[in-house]
Amino acid sequence: MTCDLTSIVSPFNNMLPGQQVSFFNHFRFCLFAGVSMLLLSSCLVKKNYPKNIPFVYRTNVAVNGNMSQADKRDLIENLENQLDDSLKPRIISTWGIPVLTNPVIFDTANIDLSKIYMRALLNANGYFYPTIEDTFTIAYKKRHALSRDRDQQRVTTQFTVTTGKRTKIDSVGFDLLTPELQQLAMRSKPNSLLRKNDPYTHQVISNEVDRLLQVFHNNGFYKISRDDVYAEVDTVIAALIDPTLDPFEQLRLLDSLQRKNENPSINVVLKQREARDTTHLKQFFIGKVNVYPDQIYVLDSADVPKLDTTTVQGYPFTFFYSSKRFKLPFIARNVFLFPDSLYRERNYFRTVNIFNRLGSWQNVDVSLTERYTDSVNYLDSEIKLYPSARLNMKNDLEVSRNIADYLTTSQFFGIGVNFSITNRNAFRESIQSSTNARFGIELGSNFIQTLQANLSHSIYFPRLIIPFRLALRTEERAINQRTVFNINGAYTIRREIYDVSSLNTSWTYEWSNRRARSRPTVNWQLTIPNIEYTRLQGKDSLAKLIARIPSLQYAFNDGFVIGVIGGMNTSWIRKNRFTNIKVRLEESGALTGFFRNLERNNLFRYVKTDFEVTNSHISRSGWAFRLFAGFGYVYGTKGDQPENKLPFFKAYFAGGPNSMRAWPVRRLGPGSSIIYDTAASGANDRFGNMQLEANMEYRFNLTSIAGIKVKSAFFIDAGNVWGKEFEDKAGNIKIEEASFAFNRLYKDLAIGGGTSLRFDFEFFLIRLDWAYKLKDPRFSDINSGWFHKLELFDGQFQLGINLPF
User: In this predicted model, what pLDDT tens digit does every residue of 169-228 receive, in sequence order?
Assistant: First the structure.
């Protein structure tokens, strides 16, 4: 490895003398902290070790093979998990210091066992010709420097695994004894998870068997199971040991086997075993369907209430009920097991999942009973629904730092009282109705800084209520359907700045698209319409700020938002990494702006879109990443002047515990301008029409205290917000540093870094972040803003709840 000292010294040469001192102070601190952490991580404390007897001190696994570094790390981690327990050092971490507790006496027999387990894992992942070499060394050490005897015999075991070439799938076939099953398998072959030249693994074979069974279960074969279907592989080798095989055919197979050793491949055939129980090969149809919508738990048969029996016109179900708590047509609409129809497993689970999701029942029991006749086999169903309590009331007292509201900053702490009442069965159709009231105050330098009162009411309909047919491919794939009506009113007093009253109402559709087995589910949301009215009464402080920054008059004013919001999100887990993608599009005034009466009443006209992707490791330690991009285009007018800023409650901002953590919330940007950093307006919020941000963390565990997991992380945040700012009220003198431009991206980019201490209570996590401004665009003219006046205790503290992303 080589190191170019010129690249290290060059930025230092461009610093002023005062900056060089700050840089060296920071560099000395970082060097000391880094060396201390390295020493602590390398000092393995031994506790209760066997004296003068070899004990397991460390076991290492190295992998040689043609694969990516990420795949190699995953394989090493899996191989380490295959080690025999007696070769795994028992290490616990106490405040970041590894402690070897009660080490096991070393035995070479455990090496052979570990090699067997490791080879089995390699075979299961398609490596059929691996070599595993092992070595071990014994180091004789003292307990500490003052000890006389070297009574520690530390054994370090090294496994070196050479995987060889990975076996790939050559061909896939189906050879099932039952003609109906063979026909279904061939019909579904395009959806097979096995593809030619894909790597062979036991897991993908298992997934293919599950997929095939799912096809059978959705076509009436209710009882078929894994005992009836299996995968046969390596048919070439099996044929070579057949003594009746023609000699010329043996020569052809030998040549084929030789080529396979050079580029190993395998043939997979899904087959059917001889049935021990012939009912496993019979198709079933739905028989009688009995529904109990208000079933109750009873301990004594004498307490069973008398049940009335009825049917619903248009539905072939029989209802047994003891009260009129639910409307029976509503129950019938959500049952998908129809008498005389072919049994399909997806309809069974769809029925179960819908009633579980509705929330009016604490337990859902759908039983199937076999009934055989001479001609047709039936499954009689009983659907027993056990209701939950209809009303639920909840009171909360919260003490937190409010960062989600546009009216507050990170310097305030809030105290809030919440009261909510939920009706789980409004209108007797499992429609959920929720009313919430909140009163909160926020404390700042002037004691009470903000007062807020909020009252909202939401109604959740368990289906899509639309005047037209919405194209969702097929109704079966549109799952988790819901329509939400919401109305919300709020009044907020921001001391000495403004009073804001707002009224919002919306009508939202939510649903999910069921995708193929190998693809993630996509969740959709469409709000149409979204209506928001905001009335702002500015005070002297706001008037002075607008006089200093004229463009703020377009952000802080009364107005309507009448538009549409669309969004989607999807997530998946692959190779121990969780990925989530969110996309959101919002507009106001695109259609309603054509109505002159609305235009004259301060209708906000804009289009904004957001994109966010997060990726994190789901194990105890690993990297986590987030990328966010948002842009809003404003095209409305106010009087004769074009508007150029998003409304303050729709604008982008950076800073705080969930964004750029080296800056207080709404204290970064816009761009590299300093218009907000003057003495007259240095404590005001900054907003923008555009935001770019990237975050990176390395998360790891420290220790556990009284059952509470103590964790930590190192992080780096980079990003900023941009907008249109003008020095004059007419908007003729533009501040270029506040607007986004690719040639100024590096200059405008803010970078912060720091560390975090986290307490995981399982249900929530408390996060204490400490961050430094590594690159501050406010001082971009001085060494590009790097390490400006950076001091050890001049960081930013952030208090956060749960992970930042």
Answer: 888 899 999 999 999 999 999 989 988 888 989 989 999 999 999 999 999 999 999 999
User: Which tokens sit at 298?
Assistant: 């009873």
Strands 478-494 and 641-642: unpaired
CA distance 750 to 734: 22
Q: Which fold is adopted by the domain 45-162?
A: Ubiquitin-like (UB roll) (3.10.20)
Class of the CATH-defined domain 284-387: alpha beta
CB 683 within 8 A of CB 722: no
Peptide bond into 670 cis (omega under 30): yes
How far CA 145 is from CA of 100, 269, 506, in Å, comes to: 18, 64, 72
Distance CA 279, CA 379 (A): 13
Q: And the tokens for 743?
A: 């040639």
pLDDT score of 298: 67
Structure tokens at 130: 């691996």
User: Taking Cα atoms as reference points, which of 236, 297, 289 lies closest to residue 264?
Assistant: 236
Integer Cα distance of 667 and 409 in angstroms: 9
Q: Where are the beta strands (DSSP E) in 445-544?
A: 447-461, 478-494, 498-513, 522-538
The 10 Å Cβ neighbour count of residue 136 is: 17
Sheet holding 131-141, edge to edge: 54-64, 152-162, 131-141
* Structure confidence by residue, pLDDT tens digits, 323-368: 889 999 999 999 999 999 999 999 999 999 999 988 899 999 999 9
User: CA–CA separation, 592 vs 529, rounded Å?
Assistant: 10
Distance of CA 242 to the CA centre of its chain: 53
For residue 253, name the pLDDT band (cuts at 50, 70, 90): low
Asked whether the bond before 642 is cis by omega within 30 degrees of 0, the reply is no
Residues in the chain, how many? 805
Reference 504, options 418, 563, 452, 462; nearest CA is: 563
Which neighbouring-strand residues pair with 139? 154
- How many whole angstroms separate alpha carbon 536 and alpha carbon 559? 9
32: DSSP letter:
H
Neighbours of 564 (CB within 10 A): 16
The structural architecture, per CATH, of the domain 463-801 is Beta Barrel (2.40)
The answer to whether 720 and 746 are in contact (CB under 8 A) is: no
Q: Give CA–CA dist 74/71, Å, rounded.
A: 5
Give 660-707 pLDDT, tens digit per residue.
999 988 888 898 888 776 534 445 678 889 999 999 999 988 888 877
The whole-angstrom distance between residue 686's C-alpha and the CA centroid of its chain comes to 29
Q: What angle do CA 434, 438, 439 make, to 5 degrees?
A: 165
Distance between CA 234 and CA 238 in Å, rounded?
Answer: 7
Rg of the Cα atoms in the chain:
34
Taking the C-alpha atoms of residue 378 and residue 127, their distance in angstroms, rounded to an integer, is 47
Instruction: Output the DSSP codes for 571-611.
Output: EEEETTEEEEEEEEEEEESTTGGG-HHHHHTTB--EEEEEE
Structural contact between residues 651 and 685, judged by C-beta atoms closer than 8 angstroms: no
Alpha-carbon span 61 to 79, nearest angstrom: 7
Pairing of strands 641-642, 690-705: unpaired
SS3 state at 543 = helix
Provide the CA 18 distance to its chain's centre, in angstroms. 45
Locate 726 and state its tokens.
């003008």
Apex 108 CA angle, 104 and 111, nearest 5: 90
Q: Token pair of 626, please?
A: 């987030």
First-to-last CA distance in the chain?
Answer: 35
Distances in whole angstroms, Cα of residue 682 to Cα of each of 86, 162, 318, 723: 62, 62, 72, 18
